[in-house]
Automatic annotation (TrEMBL):
NAD-dependent epimerase/dehydratase domain segment(s): 3-226
GO CC terms: cytoplasm
Lineage summary: Bacteria, Bacillati, Actinomycetota, Actinomycetes, Micrococcales
Organism: Brachybacterium muris UCD-AY4
Domain of life according to the entry: Bacteria
Gene3D superfamilies listed in its UniProt record: NAD(P)-binding Rossmann-like Domain
Residue ranges of the TM segments: none
Protein name: Nucleoside-diphosphate sugar epimerase
GO molecular function: aldehyde dehydrogenase (NAD+) activity
InterPro entries associated with the record: Epimerase_deHydtase (IPR001509), NAD(P)-bd_dom_sf (IPR036291), NAD(P)-dependent_oxidoreduct (IPR051783)
């Protein structure tokens, strides 16, 4: 198939391009700048420079493709996420670029859209499992960009077109967020939010890349994508082992956690996410877990 990937130079996008090329697809990676070109070519894709906020530019880029995969995001790393303007770029990408991408894909005659979304949008569900039918906790206006993005993908899925929305669990691997967490763990600084007995569901980047390939086989709809959920205490231990630290990763004190604000508060939610729907529909399964030795170097 001919597949266009937006966000192709990002953490998720690079994995998607590589996995799609390995599966035999012809992949066009979209970037806004010259220095993105060798990154995409290095993963086996063909690079195109385009403006992801301009639906005319995008429609020209998407013409002749069967599928568009949107992986755009700009998530601030660490406690920088508490700064007032830290999420402005990420918000614009979801509220504006994702909408332009869905519209341009329809204009260009693309038949399928695969849209990255986040499992963080579910509420805290204690130790109960979270399936796709659980209502999202998105009332706060901070989540509006993500809701607009989902609506745009749902709107795309008319007139015989299909849209697959992947609610990805918390990514881990060789990325800025995890690298920051490993460094803090090594230095004995607190890094984790939530409670040790709460659940976390993780997704290694390599498995996220494979999920975009698997999503080509899924019917229209929402799918959770993550590994086997574990307690945060277990994750603290796994971070400590991977960081070769003296002990497990530390939790922020309750008083600090109470002040983190809406955006980071999602990371305090206990989320035991089931990916059974995605696994049974596509045959995808997670291959790297937080207790797989060397996961931060893969
Ligand atoms: N579910 C999750 O847990 C989750 C989800 C997403 C990200 N993250 C984490 O967040 C961290 C950062 O990843 P990220 O995906 O947010 O960022 P990233 O890896 O830096 O990728 C951003 C991508 O979006 C494009 N982009 C960024 N800002 C743009 C803008 N203003 N206009 C147009 N294009 C723009 C970039 O393309 P250009 O080539 O044009 O620069 C790049 O391809 C990583 O550690 C990742 O693991 C986690």
């Amino acid at each position: 198939m001919r597949i266009a990937v937006t966000g192709a130079t990002g953490v998720l996008g690079q994995e998607a391009v590589e996995a799609l090329v390995a599966a035999g697809h012809e992949v066009t990676g979209v970037t806004r700048r010259d220095r993105g070109v060798p990154v995409i070519e290095g993963r086996g894709g063909t690079a195109v420079i385009a403006d992801v906020f301009d639906s005319n530019d995008l429609a020209r880029t998407f013409r002749g493709h069967d599928v568009v995969i949107n992986t755009l995001a700009k998530v601030p790393v660490g406690m920088a996420a508490m700064r007032p303007l830290a999420w402005r770029e990420d918000d614009r990408l979801h509220a504006e670029a994702s909408v332009a991408i869905a519209q341009a894909a329809a204009t260009a005659g693309v038949r399928r859209l695969i849209q990255e979304s986040s499992a963080y949008l579910y509420p805290d569900n204690g130790s109960d499992w979270i399936g796709e039918d659980l209502a999202l906790a998105v009332r706060n206006q901070a989540f509006r960009p993500r809701v607009r993005e989902m609506r745009a993908a749902v709107d795309f899925a008319t007139s015989g077109r299909s849209a697959v929305i992947l609610r990805l669990a918390q990514l881990f691997g060789r990325d800025p967020h995890t690298t920051h967490a490993l460094k803090a763990t090594r230095e004995g600084d607190p890094i984790l939010l939530g409670r040790p007995d709460g659940y976390i569901t993780l997704l290694h980047h390599t498995d996220a890349g494979r999920a975009f390939v698997a999503a080509l086989r899924a019917g229209s709809g929402f799918y959770n994508v993550g590994g086997e959920p574990i307690t945060r205490a277990r994750w603290a231990k796994d971070l400590g082992i991977e960081a070769k630290a003296k002990g497990p990763a530390k939790f922020y004190p309750e008083i600090t956690q109470a002040l983190v604000g809406t955006r980071l508060d999602v990371q305090r939610r206990s989320q035991r996410i089931s990916s059974v729907r995605f696994m049974s529909e596509t045959g995808w399964w997670p291959t790297i877990g937080p207790s797989t030795p060397g996961w931060s170097r893969r």
